[in-house]
Amino acid sequence: MARIVGIDLGTTNSLIAYMKDGQPCVVPDRHDRTMVSSVVALTDNGLIVGDPAKEHLTRNPERTVYSVKRFMGRGLADVESELAYFPYNLTETGGVIRIRLGAKNYSPPQISAMILKELKLRAEAHLGESITKAVITVPAYFNDSQRQATKDAGLIAGLEVLRIINEPTAASLAYGLQKKTQGTIAVYDLGGGTFDISILKLKDGIFEVLATNGDTHLGGDDLDRVLVDLFVAEIRERRGIDIANYPDHMQAVRLEAERAKIRLSDELKTEVSLDLPEDKGCFTGELTRDQLESLVMPVIERTLAPCRMALKDAGLTPEDIDEVVLVGGSTRMPLVRQRVEALFGKAPHCHLNPDEVVALGAAVQADILGGGTTDMLLLDVTPLSLGIETMGGVMSSLIRRNTTIPASAKEMFTTYVDGQTGVDIHILQGERELVKDNRSLARFRLKVPPLPAGVPRIEVTFLIDANGILNVTAKDMRTGKSQSIEVRPSYGLSDTEVERMIEDSFKFATEDISARKLIEARLDAEALIKTTEKSLAEAGHLIPTEEVDGIRTALAQLSAAHNGSDSRAIRARMAELEQAAKHLNIVMLDDSLKKGLHGRKVSDV
Amino acid sequence: MANDQPSTRPETRHQLQMARSMCWHCQSEMSGEYFCERCVKVQPVSKDTDYFTCLGFPRRLTLDPKKLEAKFYELSRAFHPDFYQAKSPTEQTISLGNAAVLNTAYRTLRDPIQRAEYLLALEAGSVKEIRTSPPADLFEEILELQDTLEQYRASDRESDQGRRLRASLQTEQQTLERRREEMESQLRRLFTDWDQLQDRGEATSQTRAERDRILKQMRDLLSHRTYINNIVNDLAATIG
Fold first, then answer.
1. How far A404 CA sits from the closest chain B CA (Å)?
2. Nearest to B190, CA basis, from B119, B129, B105
3. Both B88 and B135 in a single domain?
4. Is A374 on the interface with B (CB under 8 A)?
5. Which residue of chain B has the CA closest to A405?
6. Hey, which of A34, A60, B2, B26 would disulfide with A26, CB 3.0 to 4.6 Å?
7. Chain A nearest C-alpha distance from B205 (Å)
8. What is the ipTM score, two decimals?
9. Residues A115, A505: contact at Cβ < 8 Å?
10. How many domains is chain B partitioned into structurally?
11. Active site (annotated) includes residue A526
């Protein structure tokens, strides 16, 4: 089986890992860095990804996309409250957010696919083989649409996504492999944009998730925003400037907020320095850890209710938890550690690198799927209840939250009117009573043969697979015939749209490759022209004139090809020139040898 | 996805049809439990297999949770889709279906109440048909409680009246919780009775009458308990 890699597609950073001699390891770049910034920028030279793109955050904020994970599987209304924080242009088409970059609109899966491609290239360069299969991690609390969007991103990037795995459970795999722990653990995962809590039972290589909870819009970004708001208010008050009106400066404020927050994990106070717009100089101020902590306290407190809920769903109390594992960069904050310790009554385990452990766990899961690791098995749960709309706008639950996946439920449908030929079914996800308070996942119409009311009996099977993604099948109980169902996602790309995006991505990839070939051929041609002209000037008198003419003709032809855009024509003319100048080069070599020998004694040679 | 009609094309992805005793793949007579002993292919759990049989336990109401868990883990290792990545699409479909059945079976049998409800459904028809009903001796009390609950919801919680209603609801909640515990211990006694009756394995008219009595009492208790349980949850959610 071809190699399967593990990918942590993060809000802020992304990583790719693989299994080497029974141990997971992260693929580094040339400079030994393991993280790729999850940033995509449109520059004059095209789209760029990762750390080089991060530099464009302040230079051209409108064309630099960061934290795209917050938009995966979401509509514009879902992110309304935070739109003001993003400098790039967001719209919505067909229930999917679109991000405007230059003249084109991109869906979040397309932007994520660019990050995935960057990781894929990195692994291919490191491993010297082509990578086509992957396990990708998502926050445990991601709903069906968000998971599907992640899978779409993989497809667009040319990856077969063999499994979508939850981040905290991935972390537990890496942790369990290293520590050989048995017992009950809680994984507290506070990342750049999402929060998850998962409670697992580890026993004889089985990792059984008992309960999971979280918030897909709560993370380091939200901590930074509290500081951004503070800086903006202080600059307004002390310098009379509303820096919020300057998008490029706002990005600098955001990055400085992030850096100050990180510094305050190790220091008690730190200096904040920001350039002001319109040559108004510089703003400096001091920020203490106490200040930061009192500001972010409400955000950190928001992680505690999901923790309590997960404990309750698992039927456990904090005393039942043997170990607490911290995952995600934001857990480096001392305040987070204190609050977690206070809740669970024990010091959390923080010896694992919180940035890498998820990617490492994804590599372990990839190895399980590849048949390499056979003694470990992850039994995960679905984070949200799945149901259908019933009379009066009420949701009827079919699969409860925290049910072990794969999970299935069957429901029988019939008709209420004679000759009715269809039954509309609306699938929902969430914990609330009313349809309008839950997440609409999809709608579909069940085809029914026209019969008297109540006679048709269609059995619909709702199956949540091991990825946490819903599959729906229907069977006519009278005829025993299966019915294919076209499910229309409420917040997602349609299959045809994903296919088009895959095609586009291949087309662009081919365009990119031919563009690169042309550039390389031109550069090589330029070098050849230069050296040949130099040789002619130095040694042209040593060869017959007709040869010199031949070389000049070939040179002229190569120059003409160089001005065109056909890399193959350039290569062909180059070969012709090399052939024409072959004798010249030999003569020149002899000549320089002679010159070099000149003045030396024979015995030196 | 499996059903019982024999098929002329056994290996099609959407119509996995097999004869009960025949391997879908090599058509040899099945002797293994979940795997064909000849070709070692995984076999779909029949939709007629009850959860007790699926997990290899007798229809008893007192089960050792440790043994149940061990069996669940063992079968998870046998069925989980993670281990079928390199197998044929048919085997992947069977693995997915089996894992889903196994998970439902374990979830149902792990919880004593759900286990009893399930057994009742197996032995005496669907429990869904019985409406949850209030116990007769508590009927008056519960009506009154619903009134108090409505008043409390409409009242200002910080007022004297609000506080008084809250205190009375708390007392009610404790009473009902005690009542629920009582019912659960009654149920546990019935579970033991049932298991003993099964262990004796007699088929006299007397044991049949005894069986019907246990099932009837269990059904009533389960129905009343669910009713009380819903009220307690409602109370807990309202007064926190």
1. 6
2. B119
3. no
4. yes
5. B100
6. A34
7. 38
8. 0.82
9. no
10. 2
11. no
